[in-house]
Every structure is written in structure tokens, then in C-alpha cells.
Amino acid sequence: xxxxxxxxxxxxxxxxxxxxxxxxxxxxxxxxxxxxxxxxxxxxxxxxxxxxxxxxxxxxxxxxxxxxxxxxxxxxxxxxxxxxxxxxxxxxxxxxxxxxxxxxxxxxxxxxxxxxxxxxxxxxxxxxxxxxxxxxxxxxxxxxxxxxxxxxxxxxxxxxxxxxxxxxxxxxxxxxxxxxxxxxxxxxxxxxxxxxxxxxxxxxxxxxxxxxxxxxxxxxxxxxxxxxxxxxxxxxxxxxxxxxxxxxxxxxxxxxxxxxxxxxxxxxxxxxxxxxxxxxxxxxxxxxxxxxxxxxxxxxxxxxxxxxxxxxxxxxxxxxxxxxxxxxxxxxxxxxxxxxxxxxxxxxxxxxxxxxxxxxxxx
Length: 363
Fold this sequence. Notes:
Structural class: alpha/beta
Shape: elongated
CATH class of the largest domain: Alpha Beta
CATH architecture of the largest domain: Alpha-Beta Complex
Number of strands: 27
Number of helices: 8
Helix content: 10-25%
């Protein structure tokens, strides 16, 4: 049976990305000025998926407004709430059982960014007789992930969730393929972990200990689980580097003295004014205003943002920000509607700040 269905994650609280994610769903954070979850949708659609089911937090409607019913990608998308609060990602899949029925499916954690296609992996699964296939990647910190355990002969024999002493330098990435019915049978045979969650690694461990056919395939291209701000910034940088020149059109107004080099996309209604230097790769959203500033490389600026007198590089800046002062900002994630402005008095005796929980400032 060919895989035509996928479950994508859209819930959770993303506390490691506070305070940004107190006001925006993590999966809508922009990477190369495209919501993170859009990258995941495109990967599964490319692999042949025709129906996607996305979990959301109870009462959340933000994802539905941004994503719609799937018509943009020529597929169908439905949303479902994860009831009973966060109970682990295996529980997310269990909640989607009524949609999956007896069909094979992909489970894709939407905060996983990969450069390669998963089509080859899906095609291999479709043509074989495996119950499950796991995507693996070598990482420097496997203790952050589910880790595969191999026997001396190289066969996969178990999966451990976030082990203190990882038995290998591989991580199980957030891309999983399952055959008909097998996931839900396994779920009924696992218990919550010490963290109080139904772990996805427990599902795979159950498979391996009960003679299910579990395959694995290494992702040889770049892969990143964007759980931290630094991960997001790196993913943004790498995505910008890989984009084709044709993906950087100019739809704005550019002042004659502006200096623009490299791949730079400028959105509709944006004005690039006097004494502006933009070094690509960079993406400037719609209706932005830039004056007397240096921007880029490796920067994305959300729509409706104004930048004056500042130097910015290696940043993700969300929409409707006002950065208007002589300041240099690097390696930063700046949320929606942020204001960074010069103090009006001649002598600045200190910095005035209205700062949310877990904000990081380096001054």
C-alpha cells in the first residue's frame, strides 16, 4: 500500500523558545521568511502524501488561519486537538487514529528541517514489507534524542529515549513511516515514561522486541531539530544559502544610492531608502522601510518592519518591528512588534526596557 496520509505536529508549548513562543505558535516561526511548518508540508507532499492531519493545542486556531484546508498545495488538510494536555508525541499519533484508519502513514515532527527529499525513503518503504522505517542522522549530542541501539552485527535491536550514555552517535529524527495498524496495536502495549509521557521511542522499542520489521535509513544531507533559538538561526542561514537566485525577486522601491549585493528578495510595498546597504542572502518582507542602515547577510525581516540607523546580520526578525537607533544586532531572534529605539534625551543614563520572561539581552 502506498503512503498517502501524514500526521504533522502543530501543538506543544515550545518553552525552550520563550518568550517568542508565548505569543506565536512555534510552527509558524519563519525560516527563510516561510512558516516552519510549511517546509514540513512541502516535504511530505513531494513524497506523495494527499491528506495531512495536524494536531493543535486545545482552543488554538492560529495554525488553521495560516495553513488553510491544503488547497495551496493541492491536498487536503484537517486539524485535530490533542485532548487531555501534552502526553507525549506518541499520544499525538494515537489521537489521529480515526483519521488514519487502516492505512500506512508518515509521522513528521514539523520542527525538523532537512535539505534532502524524503521521497526515496518513502518509495523504499512502499516497495518493501516493513512495519516501520526510522530516519537516522549522526549528531554531536545524541543524548537529546531517541538513540538507536545496534548489535555487533549492525542490526537495530532497540531505541532509547534521551539516554545519559548514548550507545551510538545516531539520533532518530522526527520522521517516521508506519505500515497499516501496527502503531495503534503497539500503543496499547506501552506505558507512560518517568516524564509522564507516551514516548515514541517506546513504540519503536516494542516493535523491535516483538519481531516487527523495523528498517532505518540515514539522512545524509543536513538535518536540524529546531528546538533552540540557535538551531532556528542556523536553519535560517542554511536555507537562505541553498535558495536559487530566481527565488529572490525585487518587488519594492529602491533608492538610487542604495547598495544591494548578492541574492536579496524585496517584498511588495517595501521601500529601500537612502544610504542602505543590503548584503545577501537576505529576505525583506512586504511593506518594510529601510533607511541609513546595513542589513545582511543571512537575515530575514518580516513584513511591516522599519529599520533605521542600525546594522543587522544573522537575524530572524518577525513582522511589524521598529528598529530605529545606532545599534548592531547579530545572531538574534526578534519577535513581532518589538521596538528598539533611541532614547530622546541627550544623555542616556540607562536603558529603558519592557522585557518578557526568559528574554536574553547582551548589551
